[in-house]
Write a structure and sequence with these properties.
Elements (H helix, E strand, L loop, with lengths): L7 H23 L6 H12 L2 E5 L3 H18 L5 H25 L1 E5 L2 H4 L7 E3 L11 E4 L5 H6 L3 E2 L2 E8 L4 E8 L14 E3 L1 H6 L1 E5 L4 E4 H11 L11 H7 L5 E4 L2 E4 L4 H19 L14
Parallel strand pairs: 4-6
Antiparallel strand pairs: 1-2, 3-8, 5-9, 6-7, 9-10, 11-12
Helix pairs in contact: 1-2, 2-8, 2-10, 3-4
Length: 300
């Protein structure tokens, strides 16, 4: 298929399209439809992820043709003597070896660029809102729960991009427990000490999920690509990374209050994807690459 180079102005038009899709999914997520995190991850992948792939020369067609000829000759048994057979097989094998060497030498690596790469926007600073250090007590709402917060926090795996709601109900005989994107906490602001800015590679590879006992970790890159590539946006793979599956489960944290043991009512992965979308949009806005964003990560 013949191709032509896109014009520069097209990239900004496509960026506006992707932001339109992203904001629609964000709106639905914020209205309670958290499965929209799958679509959010897909649009983040389009914005952020570069992919390397191999291209092959036309010699690969000749190589396949030579292999097919060899197979047909061997199957039909048209060679009558063993000497002629060995001679022909040697010649064909030599031809195949030559074509394979030529093909491998002409094979090249190309990169499918993300939209931000095409726009040269990856050189901006990206806001890192992950909680640091990992045992820092932050963005947890206790409502009608009597507990020592520090002792509570030491028992938890690290989920660095989300807050937690723990709400006592029924006269403190039961409780609700759920995750939410940390920017939605009432005390969240970009001036908090542990919030900083990073270059793109360090930002995307920063660990945002960790279980020290099981030695499992996930970065922002892991989260986005796991959802977009294997868990429902672009593809559904028949195998799934153990570390992603582990952190996707609501029971990665179980709490015991009022003699009741409960897991979260949602999963931390989806809330983390929403937080990453917030970080990306705010970073682009701070770098004057898109229009101003309000506190919910939406354009004003």
């Amino acid at each position: 298929m013949k191709k032509i180079q896109r014009k520069e102005e097209e990239y900004n038009y496509i960026l506006n399209q992707q932001l339109h899709f992203l904001f629609k999914s964000i709106k639905d997520f914020d209205n309670g439809d958290e499965i929209e995190a799958i679509r959010i991850a897909g649009h983040l992948r389009t914005l952020l992820h570069d992919t390397n792939y191999s291209t092959f020369s036309k010699d690969s067609k000749s190589l396949n043709k030579a292999k097919n000829i060899k197979q047909k000759i061997l199957e039909k048994g048209v060679i009558k003597t063993k000497k002629d057979f060995n001679k022909l097989q040697s010649s064909i094998n030599s031809l195949i070896d030559t074509l394979e060497n030529q093909n491998n030498s002409k094979k090249s690596k190309k990169k499918s660029k993300s939209l931000l790469s095409l726009l040269n926007y990856k050189n901006i600073k990206f806001i890192d809102t992950s909680i640091k250090p990992r045992k820092t007590f932050a963005f947890v709402n206790f409502v009608d729960i009597d507990i020592d917060p520090l002792n509570y926090h030491k028992r938890m795996p690290y989920v660095g991009l989300v807050g937690k709601n723990i709400v006592g109900i029924k006269n403190k005989t039961d409780f609700h427990f759920s995750f939410f994107p940390s920017f939605k906490h009432k005390v969240f602001n970009l001036n908090i000490d542990f919030i900083n800015t990073l270059n793109f590679d360090k930002w995307r590879n920063t660990i945002v999920f960790s279980d020290a006992n099981l030695k499992l970790e996930l970065s922002r890159k892991d989260l986005i690509l796991s959802i977009a590539n294997i868990d429902g946006y672009a593809h559904v793979d028949d195998e799934i990374p153990i570390k992603y599956l582990f952190f996707k489960q609501p029971d990665i944290i179980k709490l015991n209050f009022f003699n009741k043991i409960k897991e979260a009512e949602n999963n931390a992965i989806f809330s983390s994807i929403r937080q990453i979308a917030f970080e990306v949009l705010i970073s682009l806005e701070k770098a004057n690459k898109i229009h101003k964003i309000n506190n919910n990560g939406k354009t004003k």
